[in-house]
Amino acid sequence: MNLIASSAFALLLAVSVAGADDAALDKRVMDLAAELRCLVCQNQSIAESNAGLAVDLRNQIRAQLARGASEREVVDFMVARYGDFVLYRPPLKASTFFLWFGPFVLLIAGIYVLIRRIRRQRTMNGQLSGADRLRAEQLLKE
Predict the structure, then answer these.
(1) What is the CATH classification number for the domain harbouring 78?
(2) What value does the mean pLDDT take over residues 107-129?
(3) Same structural domain, 10 and 70
(4) Using CA atoms, how far apart are residues 86 and 46, in angstroms rounded to an integer?
(5) Do 81 and 73 touch, CB atoms closer than 8 A?
(6) What is the DSSP letter of 84?
(7) What's the angle, vertex CA 136, arms to CA 134 and CA 137, rounded to 5?
(8) What is the per-residue pLDDT across 55-70, written as a single tens digit (0 to 9) for each?
(9) 51 & 19 share domain
(10) In a 3-state reduction of DSSP, which class is residue 47?
(11) Model confidence at 96, in pLDDT bands (50, 70, 90)?
């Protein structure tokens, strides 16, 4: 009887330890998946998306982490397979230069165009030349 009770206790202890390890693994998977972009949705992370590919990628992350791979190794695998686009914070390098600085360049270009148009309208609304003034007076007299 004592052997059965101690066996049951050991089995219960093993299940609870495995459950704790599984919860820790789930947290690592979700933390890492939150840093990776869903390739289908593109506005959601892999953790947030319910797309089939996102589910497959979460399972791939889980399998690699369970196998003992580090988070860096999993991210490197995803980048090697899907490119820097999968990262929400891609590294600054030649291929991602416009991704990082493109919005600022477009903002500056937009401000430049806006200033030029405002200045052009001011000069067009300015003083009339002598010929234009005479023509306007003639039109008003008619």
Answers:
(1) 1.10.8.640
(2) 84
(3) yes
(4) 9
(5) no
(6) G
(7) 65
(8) 898 999 999 999 988 8
(9) yes
(10) coil
(11) confident
Give the mean pLDDT of 111-134: 81
Domain count, the chain: 2
Rounded distance between C-alpha atoms, residue 50 and residue 30, angstroms: 13
Expressed as residue numbers, the domain containing 65 is 1-91
Same domain, 10 and 63: yes
Residue 36 three-state SS: strand
Q: Please, what sign has the CA dihedral across residues 90, 96, 99, 105? A: positive
Check: CB of residue 32 under 8 Å from CB of residue 71.
yes
Task: Tell me the mean pLDDT in the region 25-49.
Answer: 86
Using N-to-C axis directions, what is the helix angle for 2-33 and 71-82, rounded to 10°? 50
Same structural domain, 45 and 72: yes
Inform me whether the pLDDT recorded for 18 exceeds 50.
no
State the Cα–Cα distance between residues 140 and 32, nearest whole angstrom. 75
Same domain, 74 and 114: no
Please tell me the predicted confidence (pLDDT) of residue 105: 94
